[in-house]
Design brief:
157 residues; 6-stranded mixed sheet
Length: 157
């Protein structure tokens, strides 16, 4: 059995990335900011655990950090680090049996800053984190989110 995902996408990529004739990522929540992400995490109907938390968006040009709206997920940014530390303290991911966080954007595990963020995020949350080694395409997804056939494009933080 495949581990289900709670899929949360930045609105600027969700429509174009998942649109098309084949259903892609049918259950997709939107978050344009960290406060939107918190709202989704507290109000979404979570799949039964264990579950992946998949954050989906474009990556920044230089450092390849995942963006939610205009906010790059950069653990050197105090506001970002404080947000994820708050999630860990609140236990929201534990309550929903999240087993890993995956930053799904183009090459979010390729640069030094991106790998540093994955490592710091993993330490902060006490969970494995993954980024991507390649540019993501529509074909990497199916109706449930990232297709298990493409697990090889992920790298741990």
């Amino acid at each position: 059995m495949t581990t289900p995902s709670l899929n949360v996408a930045s609105p600027d990529c969700a429509g174009s990335f998942f649109a098309g004739r084949i259903p892609r990522c049918v259950t997709l929540h939107h978050a344009a900011s960290l406060s939107d992400l918190r709202a989704v995490l507290t109000t979404a109907a979570w799949p039964p655990g264990p579950v992946y938390l998949d954050l989906i968006g474009h990556s920044t040009r230089g450092h390849r950090l995942l963006r939610l709206g205009r906010t790059p997920i950069d653990m050197l940014d105090r506001n970002v680090a404080r947000f994820f530390a708050g999630l860990a303290t609140d236990g929201i991911l534990d309550r929903h049996d999240v087993v890993a966080v995956r930053l799904l954007g183009c090459q979010t595990a390729v640069t030094d800053p991106a790998r540093r963020t994955l490592r710091m995020l993993s330490r902060t949350l006490g969970l494995p984190t993954y980024g991507t080694l390649v540019p993501l395409l529509k074909s990497h997804s199916d109706a449930a989110g990232l297709s298990p056939r493409f697990a090889h494009v992920l790298a741990p933080g």
